[in-house]
Q: What sequence folds into this?
């Protein structure tokens, strides 16, 4: 079982970040692990909303499905992910207003499919890459949202 948890501060409002996370049409702009977006609901702002997509991890493609399990507008969203071959994940994004800024807590708990680990040969390598790419994705998301906030000021 892999686990990644980190905080990221952003010079924008929780509403701006939340809006980008719930829009599947924006995922490819910031979610660096996503190599292909498959089917998706128009918005991921309610329990049961979902999207499918291929993730690129350690140079290998993993076909996944993500379903919203919990959501509170502008505050939090929890995705449950499943992968071909039995992998599963829980991905939390939590947003808190902090003096006209946002503190974003990101938490990922995952189990890669056994055959996937066999292909890449090293679970530790995959864990490092997933952590790096998740941090990179969040940095990309924050950058987009901060630029949007600056332009609208």
A:
């Amino acid at each position: 079982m892999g686990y990644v948890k980190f905080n990221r501060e952003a010079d924008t409002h929780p509403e701006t970040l939340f809006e980008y996370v719930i829009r599947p049409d924006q995922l490819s702009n910031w979610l660096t692990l996503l190599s292909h977006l498959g089917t998706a609901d128009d918005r991921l702002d309610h329990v049961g909303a979902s999207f499918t997509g291929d993730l690129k991890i350690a140079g290998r493609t993993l076909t996944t499905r993500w379903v919203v399990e919990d959501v509170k507008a502008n505050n939090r969203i929890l995705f449950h992910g499943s992968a071909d071959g039995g992998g599963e994940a829980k991905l939390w994004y939590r947003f808190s207003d902090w003096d006209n800024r946002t503190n974003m807590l990101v938490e990922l708990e995952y189990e890669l499919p056994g055959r996937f680990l066999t292909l890449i040969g090293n679970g530790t390598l995959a864990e490092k890459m997933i952590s790096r790419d998740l941090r990179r994705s969040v940095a990309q998301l924050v950058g987009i949202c901060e630029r949007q906030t600056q332009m609208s000021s």
The chain has a mean pLDDT of 91. The chain has one domain: 2-152. Helices lie at 14-21, 24-30, 114-120, 123-152.
